[in-house]
Amino acid sequence: MNQLGVITRQFSCSSAVQSAIKNVTVIGGGLMGSGIAQVAAQAGQNVTLVDVNGDILAKAQKSIGNNLGRVAKKMYKDNPQEGEKFVSEAMGRIKTATDPVSGSQTADLVVEAIVENIDIKHQLFQKLDQVAPDHTIFASNTSSLSVNEIGAVVKRKDKFGGLHFFNPVPVMRLLEVVRGAETSETTYRSMMDWGKALGKTCITCKDTPGFVVNRLLVPYIAEAIRLFERGDASAEDIDIAMKLGAGYPMGPLELADYVGLDTNKFILDGWHKKYPDQQLFKPIPLLNKLVSEGKLGVKTGEGFYKYEKK
């Protein structure tokens, strides 16, 4: 499927959907954070992108500009001037900051997209809880940690939830909206409306490990690794089986390499620590071995398969 075509369809109707959330602060300037900032600005919202590293912010702004340029060429291929206006206006809605506290003082919504470390997330939200306006909603983009545990340190638990985007954010249409144990109905509705305003298809999930997608996907990948580890089938045959037998666009071991074997290990290790009796979450010696050898998948040139570095 043409990715730009997906982006074009997503945002062709976003202006018709109005959200009560107008000022968004995104904490974390990496791939996920910059992607969230892009789609919010593209939907007409004012965005503050925060990262303590100024170089990361500069890289994020350049990436967003390039991405918007590609979208504009597709959307306005017969009207380059309108395309330039589209890019200019969207970029004009994004400002950057290196201090999360000052960057969140006028936010209607703060979306955290930083490292998957609960202690660091706790430190961040404790600071923000003291300075953000009373109406501000806090959300985490975590993919593997508990939303309830992340939000345990804030007083506004009724205004805390999860907004789990998928990479690359401008292309992937799904948004998992996670309701914490104390998330209010008003907060939940605001998060759902905001996601729809970005052109996303929103689903709702309780705070369960991995939410919907990763709760199904990570054990599936883990079982494929165990199948290969036992010598029951080759990596190629496992992937071919799932592509031709189940209609999946990628096989599980291809997908593991794409996601990153270190990421798969990190999620499994975290779940195993919390749920030690769950067999599906038990460590996998082969996965641990590959990660220890620096064979993390596509990003390092080798995982279950070898890749030519461009």
TrEMBL record:
Secreted as a keyword of this entry, yes or no, is no
Domain 3-hydroxyacyl-CoA dehydrogenase C-terminal, by residue range, is 210-307
Tell me, in one coarse class, where this protein mainly resides: mitochondrion
* All residue ranges annotated as the 3-hydroxyacyl-CoA dehydrogenase NAD binding domain in the record: 23-208
- A GO CC term attached to the entry: mitochondrial matrix
What residues does NAD(+) bind to? G28, G29, G30, L31, M32, G33, D51, E116, K121, S143, N167, K299
ATP-binding keyword on record? no
Q: Which keywords label this protein?
A: Acetylation, Differentiation, Fatty acid metabolism, Hydroxylation, Lipid metabolism, Mitochondrion, NAD, Oxidoreductase, Spermatogenesis, Transit peptide
Q: Which reactions are catalysed by this chain?
A: (3S)-hydroxydecanoyl-CoA + NAD(+) = 3-oxodecanoyl-CoA + NADH + H(+); a (3S)-3-hydroxyacyl-CoA + NAD(+) = a 3-oxoacyl-CoA + NADH + H(+); (3S)-hydroxyhexadecanoyl-CoA + NAD(+) = 3-oxohexadecanoyl-CoA + NADH + H(+); (3S)-3-hydroxybutanoyl-CoA + NAD(+) = acetoacetyl-CoA + NADH + H(+)
Pathway listed: Lipid metabolism; fatty acid beta-oxidation
Under which EC number(s) is this enzyme classified?
Answer: 1.1.1.35
Q: Which domain of life is it from?
A: Eukaryota
Question: Where would you find this protein in the cell?
Answer: Mitochondrion matrix
- PANTHER family according to UniProt: HYDROXYACYL-COENZYME A DEHYDROGENASE, MITOCHONDRIAL, PTHR43561
Family of the protein in this entry: Belongs to the 3-hydroxyacyl-CoA dehydrogenase family.
Assembly and interaction partners: Homodimer. Interacts with GLUD1; this interaction inhibits the activation of glutamate dehydrogenase 1 (GLUD1).
- Protein name (database record): Hydroxyacyl-coenzyme A dehydrogenase, mitochondrial
Please report the organism this UniProt entry assigns to the protein. Papilio xuthus
Upper lineage is: Eukaryota, Metazoa, Ecdysozoa, Arthropoda, Hexapoda
